[in-house]
From TrEMBL:
<dbReference type="InterPro" id="IPR017871">
    <property type="entry name" value="ABC_transporter-like_CS"/>
</dbReference>
<dbReference type="GO" id="GO:0016887">
    <property type="term" value="F:ATP hydrolysis activity"/>
</dbReference>
<keyword id="KW-0067">ATP-binding</keyword>
<keyword id="KW-0547">Nucleotide-binding</keyword>
<feature type="coiled-coil region">
    <location>
        <begin position="217"/>
        <end position="244"/>
    </location>
</feature>
<protein>
    <submittedName>
        <fullName>ATPase component of ABC transporter with duplicated ATPase domain protein</fullName>
    </submittedName>
</protein>
<dbReference type="GO" id="GO:0005524">
    <property type="term" value="F:ATP binding"/>
</dbReference>
<keyword id="KW-0175">Coiled coil</keyword>
<keyword id="KW-0677">Repeat</keyword>
<dbReference type="InterPro" id="IPR050611">
    <property type="entry name" value="ABCF"/>
</dbReference>
<feature type="domain" description="ABC transporter">
    <location>
        <begin position="4"/>
        <end position="229"/>
    </location>
</feature>
<dbReference type="InterPro" id="IPR003439">
    <property type="entry name" value="ABC_transporter-like_ATP-bd"/>
</dbReference>
<dbReference type="InterPro" id="IPR027417">
    <property type="entry name" value="P-loop_NTPase"/>
</dbReference>
<dbReference type="InterPro" id="IPR003593">
    <property type="entry name" value="AAA+_ATPase"/>
</dbReference>
<dbReference type="Pfam" id="PF00005">
    <property type="entry name" value="ABC_tran"/>
</dbReference>
Length: 531
């Protein structure tokens, strides 16, 4: 057996209901991308396969199975992530001359761990504590550890989150060189494009599609077309069943009226008329039962067809689409410098005018978010000046959770006190929250719905922002929310400053300029415009 085999695998909620229908699937060696809406149970499924949580059904791996540690204990050493803590300590004692049996010492351990870290472009010492590493470095260390002992299967949950372009490339190389079964939950479209197959998790279970991201998108579009066609056929069948039943009922009623006229005329014998009446009633009763069953079957078919349709949410932010005048200056940094953590950032000379789209790029820890803090005023300048339009907004702030009990209309009015309730409902409707949906509590929103609310609060404002700042907006979004975000921002007519490691997302927003953060040395970061 070389495949990872899941048989009737499911997990139950506290109320006893299944989180998703039992999953039965065989995953051969290669990369399987696991996708699905936030909250559908992707992480839970991986935990169940790894045996970390109670579950029903079975998961059989072809050998050793490893699960990527999402949030390792900061007190652990890198060697502990590799499962080699005791061996490392024994090696240390041996090198100090304090050991009993040299045959039990793995003299190559340090070399092999360093090589594994190097493949993930990480130069940290093996005995470094996780808490001493940056988020991206900790992720690289955990990824290096997961394949260290050549397991037969690995389970990864959003492995490229918090990683810059170099880190994402290292993950791609790792997966390409891995010969076992890799089941990877991800919204990274570049990574999913490399997949051998896509497994989509939904309440109905898992659906497998061969190929990568583009193949899955094409298959999803084809399935949507088939579902729409089936819905049309089901509606026609229901209408036909109802019309046939109505026609038979009217015909039976006509025959009944004719029989009553004949009986009243006395032209036929009473016995003959009674026999004909009974026969007609029996025929009508049988036809009525057949019609009822036909209508019931048509209703069931229609319900299934309607359930197979994925409702599309159309986002419209008309005011936000109005272009900012070309000559309007929304940001001007002049010889701006700041200090943070013993580092000097700048000087920066930057002017953003009109509907420009500026991407700030650079490796993890280079200072991209620091520059945003300089722009927003969260980090005071030590030299130079920063003039920025008061009409600026951050999508991160809009996505911050409002009071869970607050209705959406109230959340909008709290952010825009000058707005009317009618204006709030109109803005929410343009984001897909129509009618009573505007009275829902924020706590009831899914990940994609929270994003739509954030877009309504920012792009649907009475006065849309002249400058929108996005700092890694795609982290922790599912694919549906990613598509919504791209759609919502496509028509934004103001200036935009973007920090992201998601190349597909950046390409969709079409930046007009790129500013690169580059560490000059341990104490200085410079910002230069890409040619």
């Amino acid at each position: 057996m070389s495949a990872l085999i899941l048989s009737d695998l499911t997990v139950r909620r506290p109320d006893g209901s299944p989180l998703f229908a039992p999953v039965t699937v065989s995953l051969p060696p290669g990369l399987t991308g696991l996708v699905g809406r936030n909250g559908c149970g992707k992480t839970t499924l991986l935990d169940a396969i790894a045996g970390r949580i109670p579950h029903e059904g079975t998961a059989r791996a072809p050998g050793a199975l490893r699960r990527l540690e999402q949030a390792p204990d900061p007190g652990l050493r890198i060697v502990d992530l590799f499962g080699q803590g005791r061996a490392w300590d024994a090696l240390g004692r041996a090198e100090a001359g304090a050991f009993d049996d040299a045959d039990e010492i793995d003299w190559t351990l340090a070399e092999r761990i360093v090589a594994a870290l190097s493949r993930m472009d990480l130069a940290a010492p093996p005995d470094a504590r996780v808490g001493e590493l940056s988020g991206g470095e900790a992720r690289r260390a955990a990824l290096a550890a997961v394949t260290f002992d050549a397991p037969a299967a690995i389970l990864l949950d959003e492995p490229t989150n918090d990683l810059d372009a170099d880190g994402q490339a290292a993950v791609a190389r790792m997966l390409e060189g891995f010969g076992g079964v890799a089941l990877v939950a991800s919204h990274d479209r570049a990574l999913l494009e490399r997949a051998d197959r896509i497994a989509e998790l939904s309440p109905e279970g898992v659906t497998l599609t061969g190929g990568g991201w583009s193949d899955w998108i094409a298959a999803r579009a084809a399935a949507a077309e088939r579902a729409e066609a089936e819905l049309d056929r089901a509606r026609d069948a229901r209408a036909a069943a109802g019309a046939a039943a109505e026609a038979r009922a009217q015909a039976a009623a006509g025959r009944g009226r004719q029989g009553r006229r004949l009986r009243a005329s006395g032209s036929h014998g009473k016995m003959l008329m009674d026999m004909q009446k009974q026969r007609a009633e029996n025929t009508a009763s049988g036809a009525s039962r057949l019609d009822a069953r036909a209508i019931e079957a048509a209703d069931a078919r229609l319900a299934r067809a309607e359930g197979a349709i994925r409702p599309a949410v159309a986002l419209r932010f008309d005011a936000a689409a109005a272009p900012l005048p070309e000559g309007r200056t929304v940001l001007q940094l002049s010889a701006a410098e700041a200090e943070r953590g013993g580092r000097r950032y700048g000087p920066v000379d930057l002017t953003v005018t009109g509907p420009e789209r500026l991407r700030i790029a650079g490796p993890n820890g280079a200072g991209k978010s620091t520059l945003l803090a300089m722009i927003s005023g969260a980090l005071p300048l030590t030299r130079g000046t920063c003039r920025v339009t008061p009409g600026r907004a951050s999508l991160d702030q809009a996505l911050a959770a409002p009071d869970p009990a607050v209705p959406l209309v109230a959340a909008y009015l709290a952010r825009h006190p000058a707005a009317t309730e009618q204006g709030a409902r109109a803005a929410l409707a343009r984001a897909g929250f129509r009618g009573p949906a505007g009275d829902r509590a924020a706590a009831t929103l899914s990940g994609g719905e929270r994003l739509r609310l954030g877009l309504a609060l920012v792009l649907g404002a009475p006065e849309p922002p002249e400058l929108l700042i996005l700092d890694e907006p795609t982290n922790h979004l599912d694919l549906e929310a990613l598509e919504l975000l791209e759609t919502g921002l496509a028509g934004f007519g103001g200036a935009l400053i973007l920090v992201t490691h998601d190349e597909a997302f950046a390409a969709a927003l079409r930046p007009t300029r790129t500013l690169v953060a580059t560490p000059v040395d341990d104490c200085h970061v410079a910002f230069t415009e890409a040619g």
